[in-house]
Amino acid sequence: MTNPNAHAVERALAYARSEEGRFLEELFAFLRIPSISALPAHREDVRRAGEFLAEHLKALGFPTVRVYETEGHPIVYAEYLVDPSLPTVLFYGHYDVQPVDPEAEWTTPPFEPEIRDGAVYARGASDDKGQVWLFLKAVESFLRGAGGLPVNLKVLLEGEEEIGSPNLVRALSREREAWRADVVLVADTGMPEPGRPAITVGLRGICGLEIRVRGARTDLHSGEFGGIVRNPIQALVELLARFHDAEGRVAVPGFYDEVRPLSREEREAIRALARDEHELARTLGVPELYGEAGYSYLERNWARPTLEFNGIGGGFQGEGTKTVIPREAFAKITCRLVPDQDPERIRERILAFVEEHAPRGVVTTVTAFDSGPPYVVNPDRPAIAAAARALEATFGTPPVYVRMGGSIPIAAPLAQNLNAPVVFLGFGLPDDRIHAPDEHFRLEQFTKGLEAMVRTLAELGKSPAS
Amino acid sequence: MTNPNAHAVERALAYARSEEGRFLEELFAFLRIPSISALPAHREDVRRAGEFLAEHLKALGFPTVRVYETEGHPIVYAEYLVDPSLPTVLFYGHYDVQPVDPEAEWTTPPFEPEIRDGAVYARGASDDKGQVWLFLKAVESFLRGAGGLPVNLKVLLEGEEEIGSPNLVRALSREREAWRADVVLVADTGMPEPGRPAITVGLRGICGLEIRVRGARTDLHSGEFGGIVRNPIQALVELLARFHDAEGRVAVPGFYDEVRPLSREEREAIRALARDEHELARTLGVPELYGEAGYSYLERNWARPTLEFNGIGGGFQGEGTKTVIPREAFAKITCRLVPDQDPERIRERILAFVEEHAPRGVVTTVTAFDSGPPYVVNPDRPAIAAAARALEATFGTPPVYVRMGGSIPIAAPLAQNLNAPVVFLGFGLPDDRIHAPDEHFRLEQFTKGLEAMVRTLAELGKSPAS
């Protein structure tokens, strides 16, 4: 129960190395729980994953472990306070995962983890169960291998990250005093390539919605009724085609109004990190990269907002042909937002746009999903420097400071409510296929990530608070 | 085996009336066979439906019954020739049915026929098993109730109508001598409303295709890759939105080039048959009717070509949200064609249009489905007059001569190969929900249709050949 010295770190690292096989076995048990937060049918599985973590925290010796009930999935919270003179670190991670469809495209079933080609394959292996596990095992390595923690710990694990963290945002404002910390540590990000550690200093925000176009009461025969009613698919595609202009820009009025322009220095820094575009296109299997005119691919992904169609459906989807005019068609949309766009204002502008262009002869409705604001952190904060030292000691090279095209909707509320800097320390790789079939997490990233996590906790213990 | 006199018709009608309950029971057995020609999983069911008919024809006493094997589903052919001095009628119908999705929207399962509210509910009840059954039972009524047939009969039943009759077209040109007839009788059409018999004198043709847009090798996370690659859904909707102009016209160059303009007389005749547009919109459940500018709804449906999107799909279709850029998206399209459009030329123009507008950053492919030309018949032919007399005797009012928005792809090849007029005599009603959930056939239509079929066979026996 004392601030560990350099020997303590070495002992924790030695413990981690010797126990890594067991750590992976335990992770497999966690990965086997199909905790898909978006699907009501998996409600109990999500709860089970939360309870699995709560039990594990108790087993590790956390004096306080709570499972908060919410209107949605539970929040798991734990505390292990060792010394008021040490900094307090709040760790955040999530135990829910994305849906698995198209399930037929998985080489092995998504909830039957398997090691092959040097990686763990399973839904959640990289996003985010594998990374949560790194943290818990770093904690265990200090407790069992070094005799105590180097910092006071608060652990916040939620089951709704993949659906926009609706209940954690509410809990955060209620529990802001209880959860107060000097630093927030989040392990849900990645590195640009193996051997190149990174600290994420910018994340895009998100807002999502679904557009549904309804025509006749039932599906109609396209011969009997073709030419008589408006086809909902036709109405939908004509509406959706208005969302982007010919240059790939989002055509919703006001969409870019609050976008913070990139400085010349930021553009230089991004350029230095960019990969060869042709090679990237080849890796992805596309004829060429594509996006908003006037920006490089990495600028578009890190610092420009996007509006993506995530799904579309309507009518006959089987083999061959069916001569039907479907009764409805729908599309799912998410926007990625950058500073200083506000998700609510963006959503309002999209709603106004849909209303303005709502097609005749059909009924168009819009459902809003949960949202999260964009987030950027100043890389000069001492907590970031502490994590940077840990990464350099582990990988032999200093980290790069990157932004991320993705979103962690809870990032900005965490920083605001707890009034602490957020350190995004992550070990995913770009080809981990998160949210897609064959998601995986490389074993080498697990080993290095565990080591870096041990060192980061030690460095944060030595660092001035935030 | 003699030309029946008026007494024979009355005896056949009396037999039909007394046996109608059993006729329906037998039809139920036919409807229970899920003979969906578009789905490979139902291949054996389609064969079973064909064999069911072949057995039934044998049991009725047809001296010749053949099951032709094809590359697809079998063709059932039967002959009952009674007297070379009598006209020969070739009856055409189909025993395959449309797919049943969305299956959840059926009140009772599609292949468990049920009578409720005065109608038989089942896939195929109206299109076309119920109508094939009317014909077979009219034949039985003559054979068992009146002692013989009033005409020579050839019966041609196929299992590929719903997928464009690819193999029947080939068989027709091979068997044109064997199948020669004076009149072709087709029962696969309908009446505009109960009590108003109709003879269809025009059908639209059809050509179908599928467009598939492929992006990256796998689904991608829309945060990690949003702004980097072209979204296949976005590329697809932008392409599809080009197919129609703001006035509802098809924008494919040359699409209307061969469309025969409507004469003032034809427009007058169509106007006389039109329903109130507001009432029709209310019945269908749409805010208003919609289609190509400058034409009434019935002109658009009967005499103008259309291009309809029958299905669209790509990405996440479940509940809620999934932040994915899908690897591909697709749309299914069918065009309804009118004289003198040629399906092959129309398809070539669509292919050229897709090629011209193929979106960058993705790969677009087109698959063609089978097609059929449009067909019109001169209502002054003696065979049409014979059918008209039968309908007037049955319904107490002369038939209207209608066109149909739908297609029977085999109509034009039948007429051309057999060099005989086609009489479209059908008893479906506009709200039968063919090709949709809860397809049904009204019992009253079965009763009247059976009576009309008996009378039509008798009238064709008295009429000069074609």
From TrEMBL, chains A, B:
Domain annotation Peptidase M20 dimerisation: ranges: 201-361
Keyword flag Protease: yes
Molecular functions per Gene Ontology: metal ion binding; peptidase activity
Domain of life, source organism: Bacteria
Keywords: Hydrolase, Metal-binding, Protease
Gene3D superfamilies, per database record: 3.30.70.360, Zn peptidases
Any Gene Ontology biological process: proteolysis
tRNA processing as UniProt keyword: no
PANTHER family associated with the record: BETA-ALA-HIS DIPEPTIDASE (PTHR43270), SUCCINYL-DIAMINOPIMELATE DESUCCINYLASE (PTHR43270:SF12)
Protein name (database record): Acetylornithine deacetylase/succinyl-diaminopimelate desuccinylase-like protein
